[in-house]
Amino acid sequence: MEKEVWRFIDSGENSPSFNMALDEALLEWHGEGKIPPVIRFYGWNPPSLSVGYFQNIEREIDMEAVSQYGLGFVRRPTGGRGVLHEHELTYSVIVTEEHPDMPKTVTEAYRVISEGILQGFQKLGLEAYFAVPKTSAEKEALKHPRSAVCFDAPSWYELVVEGRKVAGSAQTRQKGVILQHGSILLDLDEDKLFSLFKYPNDRVKERMQKAFKTKAVAINEISSRTISLDEAKEAFRSGFENGLGIILEPYSLSPEELDYVNKLAKDKYESDEWNFKR
What we know:
The chain is of the alpha/beta class. It has helices spanning 16-31, 57-60, 63-68, 106-123, 136-143, 190-194, 202-212, 219-222, 229-244, 255-269, 272-276, and strands at 4-14, 38-44, 48-51, 72-75, 83-85, 88-96, 128-130, 159-161, 164-174, 177-185, 246-250. Catalyzes the transfer of endogenously produced octanoic acid from octanoyl-acyl-carrier-protein onto the lipoyl domain of GcvH, an intermediate carrier during protein lipoylation.
């Protein structure tokens, strides 16, 4: 059977507002039938903190620390918790809910899409597997996360290596289209990450950071060799092709498409109304 051709965009490093605007624009264009499904790789310049759609900034985020580190900041259109985008490969997948290979439930669609990431890790020589909460306590912890930090615990079908989370993803569905995006950590500055959130006191912060070390890990901490961003891109691009049974065809945005994304970035994702409204 002939493989389906999806678009592949490597948009390089961009501002946090541009990154979220491009994901939203691709979702919109795919929903309107203007483009086929898309897989996109990207980075962040400057390094940035993104927060989930439902997070309360005033209660959870230390914006002074974000500013002191010179980080960008944006609210995602997807759920989940805070992510420091620095030494990582970020990906997004845009595909209609009606696609014949997409299961109807969020968790099962998540598993299908994440198969590409799983195979990417395996190509890098890492024995990754899907986290599936087994006990009722583990399932309850997913519903009521105790931390504002995304990598603090694996969710359904999140990817783990040696029991620790190596990729964090979030999903939204709008107008019949799935947008899943996530971070694949190459390296991680834990002290910087934990300084960006608010805690009741220093003791709680120390306890959470200590526990975090047992729950999350970056690729280069567990790999027998240093893996570069380019090598990661190659592995995960190939992983998505194999995992989803597709062919990825490179695509560059037209000047008109770029103009649209830049306007959306400025009007929406750079606005205080969007970023701080909850």
